[in-house]
Write a structure and sequence with these properties.
alpha+beta, 4-stranded antiparallel sheet, globular
Length: 95
């Protein structure tokens, strides 16, 4: 499974409806899981980004579909990076 780190910022709509953010996050967890995506963690943060989402997917297509659905709801914008643990990074370096 590939790991993805998503940096999240609220849109104006998301900021206006911020009190519903935790409820939306729980709903997103269930939807993602139904599509074979594992939500490793969700954090609300202070600073340049409003949140961080870490997910695992067995294909880029599944990850992209999941994040498109998230963005389409209009509450957040995401910036996504694929992440590698030390073993994954070593495999890449040894290839």
């Amino acid at each position: 499974m590939a790991t993805y780190v998503c940096l999240i910022n609220f849109t104006e709509k998301g900021a206006t409806e911020i009190k519903e953010s935790a409820k939306r996050a729980r709903s997103f967890d269930k939807t993602a899981e139904a599509h074979g995506i594992t939500i490793v963690a969700q954090f609300w943060t202070m600073g340049a980004y409003d949140g961080v989402l870490i997910l695992e997917a067995d294909s880029e297509e599944k990850a992209l579909h999941c994040l498109i659905d998230l963005a389409a709801a209009g509450n957040v914008k995401t910036e996504t990076m694929q992440a590698f643990d030390v073993e994954g990074f070593e495999r890449i370096m040894d290839a």
